[in-house]
Amino acid sequence: MNSVTVYAACTLALFLASGDLLAARSGRGHDHATAVQAQSEKTQKFCSIQTLKGTYLYSERGYDEGNPFAESGMETYDGKGNIIGFGSDSSDPVNGSFVGTYRIEGDCSGTLTYDGGTVYNIYVQPDGSLFSFLDTTTGSVLSGEEKRISKKLILK
């Protein structure tokens, strides 16, 4: 090996090492790539309005105006933000029908809003097969889950 080759190899090694040092100092090395990846994951959409499509069975329990309360029933979500449902509850065992709307964010959180004004926060499994809900209406402490039983729109 001649002296020119040794000099070139040493210069290249120093250049590469200084590049790693510069990248680390400027926040552009591994840490920068991790930050970019984390930001990309934050903005990635796992859910949309179409995530909830089909017919679901639900059950909720808790307290309404300080009184024990339970309800169960069936709802159809059309994949466009509309809900049609029926169910019965502990205060009135006769089946009643209702309608509402829903929205879902890319992070799989969202809201259900029913014609009577009740609003629920929801947290949806990315495949849309299951979600949990929490009543955010003042005076209520109600929560439950809905499980998809069919991808068909049974209630119309």
- Distance from N terminus to C terminus (CA atoms, Å) equals 83 Å
Rounded to an integer in angstroms, the radius of gyration calculated over CA atoms is 27 Å
Number of strands: 8
CATH topology of the largest domain: Lipocalin
Percentage of residues assigned to helices? 10-25%
Which H/E pattern describes the elements? HHEEEEEEEE
CATH homologous group name of the largest domain = Quinohemoprotein amine dehydrogenase alpha subunit, domain 2
What is the number of helical segments per DSSP (H or I, 4+ residues)? 2
Largest sheet: 8 strands, antiparallel, barrel
Q: Which strand order spans the largest sheet, edge to edge or round the barrel?
A: 1-2-3-4-5-6-7-8
Which architecture name of the largest domain does CATH use?
A: Beta Barrel
Tertiary shape = globular
Task: Note the beta-strand portion.
Answer: over 45%
Describe the structure.
The protein is of the alpha+beta class and 156 residues long. It contains two helices and eight strands. It has an eight-stranded antiparallel β-barrel with strand order 1-2-3-4-5-6-7-8. The chain is globular, with a radius of gyration of 27 Å. The termini are far apart.
Q: Which helices and strands, and how do they pair?
A:
Elements: H1 3-26, H2 30-43, E1 53-64, E2 67-78, E3 82-89, E4 92-104, E5 109-114, E6 119-124, E7 130-135, E8 140-150
Antiparallel strand pairs: 1-2, 1-8, 2-3, 3-4, 4-5, 5-6, 6-7, 7-8
Give the tags.
8-stranded antiparallel barrel; single chain; Lipocalin; alpha+beta; disordered N terminus; 2 domains; 156 residues; 47% strand
